[in-house]
Design goal:
Strand content: 15-25%
CATH superfamily of the largest domain: P-loop containing nucleotide triphosphate hydrolases
Number of helices: 21
Number of domains: 3
CATH architecture of the largest domain: 3-Layer(aba) Sandwich
Largest sheet: 6 strands, parallel
Distance between the termini: 43 Å
Strand order of the largest sheet: 3-2-8-9-1-10
Shape: globular
Helix content: 40-55%
Number of strands: 21
Length: about 500
DNA sequence: TAATATTACCTTTTT
DNA sequence: GGTAATATTA
């Protein structure tokens, strides 16, 4: 037991050893060691007498599942030749359930397929959607093919989210979805959310059979709980009950996947979704220098106490607060790119931090690609930093972070509801808004703020916050104001 | 029907 | 600015 808790701080110990008589939500701030808590919790459960095959741990990505499995195996008391806990992705677990058989009948037959379906990729989905819809339908829904795909996925996973659609549009979408489902069934195809909805259907139709096939669990652990969609919550509810406590780890401040159907509702209202639950916060950060944490803390300073986390460094003391985040505005992206290169070299010379370990983060793929191209052209033989979107950077950390795209309209990202993305300076936008009341600014302010938080908390030592007065977005050169997020600095 | 001109788009991503 | 869907022409 001592070994199991060694190196953990008090809040981590509390989380790892919390009673399994009730559900638990661990609200883990960025860089506070949530994977450690998850893996030690599994080890703790085993030590507490729960047999390993009665433990189910679910993640979103295969990478996360593999990482957890690896770390579990490293904990000696677990690697004893017995069955390992079930550690897999939500989709992987659902697929396992659908692919297995019981009573001489395979489970995919139970939900209406004759042969085991083939899994559709993104392109296949678009092909089917192109076949079953025409221009008229897409115009009525105010989308192109790619956005229709997004709409259909959201509808399947979280119909309640689509509040911006009119009743007529919802009817049209329902018809499209019906056709789409029919088409897949006919050709024996399924897509990723069919794995989830199929598994949920099995659970609802024949819970007894499901538990015989998948097993009865005594503990279910979920990683990145804030990213779950309502379908996944429904699925979970078939395994979690009075005899099986849920141990969820997540961070409501890092919920950035609303656009693909994730719902922070169950995280924010955890105790009403899971009765009798207890909430534990992890606020000791082992990643960033205090000056960076100060900034991260300012982003959510107005949240109510219950959910507000104040990150405190568990690694650096008062005399090692690091370098204050630096804000710069450039005339354009060329100058910014050149400046980044110079600054990266300066830091390398001073601190021996490899340039290849530094990151340049963007809100948009476009601007990220633009920057990567600039390097390819101007610095073909030099080492260069990594370029990625903030979404892709989640969960990662870098000694040096250059956070770009901080212009109002780009980040926070605006959409004009006429469908035309007409971002520009705030002044231009407001003028346009007054000229045609039909075009209000559409922006998920809270999600953009969380995305900003994710960007800031990637940095270990150096953080730069960049905006440009002019830049090319959507093929046009536009004038931009500084992002409102820079006022938080 | 196939080649060619024109128009209408354009956030983030994993399984 | 680049691309993909749609409209037009031979």
């Amino acid at each position: 037991m001592n070994q199991l808790l060694s190196g953990l701080n008090d809040e981590q110990k509390k989380a790892v050893t919390i009673s399994r008589d009730h559900h638990t939500l661990v609200l883990a701030g960025a860089g506070c060691g949530k994977t450690t808590v998850l893996t030690r919790r599994i080890a703790y459960l085993v030590g507490d007498g729960v047999s390993q095959e009665k433990i189910l741990a679910l993640t979103f990505t295969r990478k996360a599942a593999q990482e957890m499995l690896l770390r579990i195996k490293l904990l000696e008391q677990i690697d004893s030749g017995f069955a390992l806990p079930v550690i897999t992705t939500f989709h992987g677990f659902a697929l396992k359930l659908l692919a297995s058989e019981s009573g001489g009948k395979s489970n995919f037959e139970r939900i209406g397929f004759r042969n085991r379906p083939r899994l559709l990729d993104h392109e296949n989905r678009l092909e089917i959607l192109a076949q079953i819809t025409d221009k008229r339908i897409r115009t009525a829904l105010d989308v192109d093919l790619i956005r229709l795909d997004g709409l259909v996925s959201q509808y399947v996973v979280f119909p309640g989210r689509l509040v911006s659609l009119s009743p007529e549009q919802k009817m049209i979408l329902q018809q499209v979805v019906d056709k789409y489902q029919y088409e897949k069934m006919k050709k024996s195809l399924w897509d990723f959310s069919d794995l989830l909805s199929g598994a949920v259907k099995l659970c609802e139709d024949d819970p007894g059979m499901v538990h015989k096939t998948a097993g009865v669990f005594e503990s279910v652990l979920v990683d990145e709980f804030q990213d779950t969609n309502p379908l996944q919550i429904r699925f979970l509810n078939h395994f979690v009950d009075n005899n099986c406590a849920l141990f969820a780890v997540g961070d409501d401040d890092q919920a950035i996947y609303g656009f693909r159907g994730a719902d922070i509702g169950p995280t924010i209202n955890f105790t009403s979704y899971f009765k009798g639950a207890e909430i534990v916060k992890l606020q000791t950060n082992y990643r960033s220098k205090p000056f960076i944490l100060d900034m991260a803390n300012r982003i959510f300073r107005n949240k109510s106490d219950v959910y507000r986390k104040v990150l405190v460094s568990g690694k650096y003391g008062k005399n090692d607060r690091g370098v204050k985040p630096r804000v710069c505005q450039f005339t354009d992206q060329d100058i910014m790119a050149a400046w980044i290169m110079l600054q990266a070299e300066k830091i390398y010379k001073k601190n021996r931090i490899n340039i290849a370990d530094m990151a340049v983060l963007f809100r948009l793929n476009q601007t990220c690609d633009w920057m990567a191209d600039w390097i390819r052209k101007k610095f073909p033989q030099k080492t260069c930093p990594q370029f990625l979107t903030i979404h892709k950077s989640k969960g990662l950390e870098y000694p040096v972070v250059f956070l770009c795209d901080l212009e109002e309209g780009v980040f926070p990202n605006y959409r004009i509801s006429s469908g035309r993305n007409n971002i520009g300076s705030v002044w231009d936008l407001i003028k346009e808004w007054y000229n045609s009341k039909k075009n209000p600014i559409e922006c998920d302010w809270e999600e953009e703020k969380r995305l900003f938080y994710v960007g800031v908390t990637r940095a270990i030592e150096y953080l730069y916050l960049f905006s440009c007065k002019n830049k090319m977005v959507y093929g046009r050169r536009r004038r931009f104001d500084r992002s409102r997020f820079l006022r938080i600095v």
